[in-house]
Amino acid sequence: MLETAIILSAAIDGLFQVLAWPAFPFMFMGVLVGMLLGLIPGLGGLVGFALLIPFVVGLDPVVGLALLLGMAAVTTQTDTIPAVLIGVPGTSAAMATALDGYPMAKKGEAGRALCASYFASIFGTIVAAALFIILLPFLRGLIFSFGQPEFFMLVMFGLLLAGSLAGNSLLRGIIMAAVGLLLAMVSSTTSIGEPRYAGDIIYLWEGIPVVPLVLGLFAIPEVIDLARRGSTIAEVAADTKVTGMRQGLTDNIKNWWLVVKASLLGALAGFIPGLGGQVAEWMAYGAAVASDPDPSSFGKGNVRGVIAPEAGTAAQKPGALVPTLAFGIPGNVSMVILLAVFPIMGLVPGPSMLNEQLSVTFSMIWTMVIANILAAILALMLQKWLIRLCFIRASIIVPLILGAMLIGATMENRSFGDVLVFFLAGLFGYLFKHFDWPRVPLIMGMIMGALAERYLFLSINLHGTKWLTDRPLVWVIAAVIFLSIGMPAIMRKRQGQRTKNGSEA
Amino acid sequence: MSISTRSKNILKKSLVALSVIAPFAIAGPALAEPDFAGKDITFWTSHKGADSVLSLQTFSNYISKYLKGNPKITVVSKFGGGGLVNANYFAKINKPDGLNVTMFNFVVTMAWAMGKDGVNYELDQYRMVGAEPQVFMHMAGTSAKVGDSMLDIAKAGPHTYGTRTRNANVMAAEMLFKGAGNPLKVVTGFGKTEDVIQALASGEVQLSYVYGPAWVRNEANYRGMGLKPLAQMGVIGKNGEVARYASLANIPTVAELYLKTNPNGKKTMEYLAMKTATGLSNIGKGYFIGKDTPDDIVDAWRAAMQKAAADPDFIKEHTKLLGTPLELVPGPEAESILKDGLEVLKDTYFQKGNDGYKMVFGGK
Amino acid sequence: MTYRHRIDLLLTGFFLLIALLAIIGVQDLPSDDQLFPITAGTLLLVATCIYAFRVLTRRHVDESSETPTILDLPSHEKVTILKMIIYISSLVLGVMLFGHLVTVPLFVFIYMLAHGENWVIAFLGGCVMLIFVRGILIELMNVAMPHPLFGNYLPF
Fold first, then answer.
1. What is the ipTM of this complex?
2. Do B51 and A348 touch (CB under 8 A)?
3. Over the stretch A288-297, which tens digit does the pLDDT of each residue have?
4. CATH homologous superfamily of domain B40-133+283-350?
5. Residue of B73, B74, B100, B186 best to disrupt the C interface, most CBs of C under 10 A
């Protein structure tokens, strides 16, 4: 009871700190920067940190963090805008959103897709914040009960979800997932430090970079097709009034369980160090596909394919704050940078962040929630002009997008290797798109493959085979996998069998 | 001697002296302090962490203050390949004009000396203008319950050491365990330092290492997670032997512990390897200037770095930003440590295919 | 055999080759480092063989099997696709030879002009890119753009 009172009191304190002067205007500034960065493909949160860190030196911790987190929280809010309007994800965390968001825009439902994504982001952040409050008393025990075997099982969960994203042909999906796994094997992180599949090409020693690969695979085909159509992005005339706001909200409410599920998955992915934003996005998307009565509708403009990844990605951020603040273990790459900034602010991650400084911790969580709401409001206000982007001539938009994408792709390693990966991925991506070879399992295989290998080896090297038998959490996750993926697949098959028998009768 | 003969001798000596001095007098302007006014200097680093880049940029701002002309110095990250990308890139773009300076970590220096694949730079052609030490510390996790000393742990039996990749710190730990008569199982493959720390705290691995100043900054947090400091890699003291790092004065060095199990061990290759690893990590962030850079530019950079490091405003600012002051090893001293280290690493023990190489870089 | 089937077989053959190379490529590594690549390589090998068999024997039928492909498009659209590939290739080559700062703004300018935009809009487009690369990336964020092949001959 006392603990609840302490937590609630800190939560209220934290909220007032964020809404007070000068934290609130700094947060607003951060939101504006974050919105701009999310709009430009290839940039995103890390670039934002690099830009803003010099400005936070000397600021009060709450104010400085309001600026930084205000920026970081919303890049994945506005990255949906290019993802939906032009099929080019603003950051890699909007890839899944583009799969259904862009087809919605082509059908003239851009407003609905965008609004659904804004509200999903808001709800995702709120669910993650609520989860944080509930889990606060159990945090330490929770995070240290996860070891390499548990991480492996979580990654397998993500990989198996990829199987539900194979589109029309399961075999092609398996082939692409296997290719993704092999691409993930390129690197120098072998047990003997010798590069695998990289030879003397130092560029490949850190592995094939994901950002240029994703931009090439998904964005170049869209740009080529846009040029081929030679008209505008929207293939259907759309109402240029701000439409879809109510519908976007209704979509979220109608699919409330999906929002909660995706948010929980996202928060979990953020909470577990080493998984990260892309895993959150795809786990959420995969969960939406796996649980839908009509999985084949995904990739063709299903609003659930927008809601789920947006909620998951948004929830991942407050989730990632938890291990970062509580234990100094960064939940994702952005948190690594945030950790480095803490000493500048006079903060030390650790038990104090969950005790004496709990209100500062809550101020960070509140910043993320409020920043998302602010960004959604701003985006809704600018919606009319944003949607007009759909009607700009291809001859103007194509070269600008290509140029921006190429630059964005180069930001990963700042090397011509990135440019080559981008180009080759683009050529293959075009082929895959038009001959129905699903690209999503390839990316999932690549992202998850490296993680899966690492965790599997560490599990075996550290525990032998006992990791399969002596760790209850492994069984719990296995059960979750079965319930989320196996059961719906079995039920769908039985349903199909019954329908077939019924029609035969 | 007659006065005339003495005068002739004096004249001769004066003429000789003049002939020596005159060229310098005539060439005076060429040896004046180099002027960097209006120039842009790039300070390359292989680190991409915000605190590392921030530290270097802050330092660079003060270096600029002490370089004639106060040039703009920008820190640029060129990460990848464990530092090799930056090193190979520097090899391509460096010129003898003092406008490009780079940081090489000690993996880069060891890779060159030990003939690792992928090295396309000529370390012995560059001059060192300074260095920062990187002192590492071994620590125990929650499942290493035997004693507070790494030696007690080594004597107690086999243990597991978790790390991202093999390196000289791991080599030192292995040698200590070998000396104590027990194997150390090294498990590589962790993604980041934080992953290892979590594994230590959850008990999955028993030992690992961390950057010394990071332990000092986060000690309360780490101890709260159940981690304990065991042994440090140390610094090279004034007597040329391994000594304790001032900020970790209560923690013994691995070399000290090794000598407890092997009192005559100073002559062994293992001890020499530990000492070399310590020496090279003492210049773990080595600052190098381009090939064939004239001495006056090198000296100007060295002097500017030393003055910057001693600047009270810089010390205050750096401590405020990063929690600790910047420790600079002056250029000539750094170069001397490097030379000694590289000399030792020429031994076949450290070359590819041999034990020393395998302990540092892995291999069959 | 339709174009779709031919492309399917081509891609399948390509992936089969990758699988074989992947398995061979790790033979010199310790078993720990072989396990995952060999598993993934074997999975790829088996899946590609089964798929190739099904395509060749026409047993593979799914929703997309009989739908037209880009190869069935009218010739002017095929030409557009080819032109786009050439444009993108030129952009990539230009960036590698002359760097982002020169190539990207020039590309935007030339592309817009070539596609019928008036020179003012094309010029503005080029300027936007120039400001983005030079102003924001290089000056403000100190991003080290990669050094192009002819970088030493450029005045900036």
1. 0.91
2. no
3. 988 888 888 8
4. Bordetella uptake gene, domain 1 (3.40.190.150)
5. B74
